[in-house]
Amino acid sequence: MDNKQMRSDEKPIKWLRSSDVREMLGISDSTLQTMRINKTLPAYKLGSTWFYQEGEIFESLLAGRNIKINQA
């Protein structure tokens, strides 16, 4: 299976399996399942296999970050 696909803006989409995401984030299977159920991470199911777009994982992490604002 080719894990890259082209979108209309010509950026490749890298598809990851659950094991890739768990390793990347250093989380357990149950934590990933909870994040998927809570829609913290967008996921796509094909048959019995879950897939994740690498870019969407990064976007989700950035959307949930805490930003410290320096006050002058």
What does this protein look like?
With 72 residues, the chain is an alpha+beta fold. It has helices at residues 18-25, 29-37, 54-63; strands spanning 4-6, 12-17, 44-46, 49-53. The chain has a four-stranded antiparallel sheet with strand order 1-2-4-3. It is globular, with a radius of gyration of 15 Å.
| Largest β sheet strand count, sense and barrel closure | 4 strands, antiparallel
Main sheet: strand order:
1-2-4-3
CATH topology: Arc Repressor Mutant, subunit A
- Identify the overall geometry: globular
Instruction: Please provide the ordered H/E string of secondary-structure elements.
Output: EEHHEEH
CATH architecture, please? Orthogonal Bundle
Structural class category: alpha+beta
Strand content: 15-25%
Number of separate strands: 4
Mean pLDDT: 87
- Quote the distance from N terminus to C terminus: 53 Å
Please report the number of helical segments.
Answer: 3
Would you identify the regions where 5 or more consecutive residues have pLDDT less than 50?
A: none
As a percent range, the share of helical residues equals 25-40%
The number of domains is 1
Observed structural traits:
Arc Repressor Mutant, subunit A; 3 helices; 72 residues; alpha+beta
Please outline what is shown here.
The chain has 72 residues and is an alpha+beta fold. Helix content is 38%, strand content 24%. Strand 3 and strand 4 (49-53) form a beta hairpin.
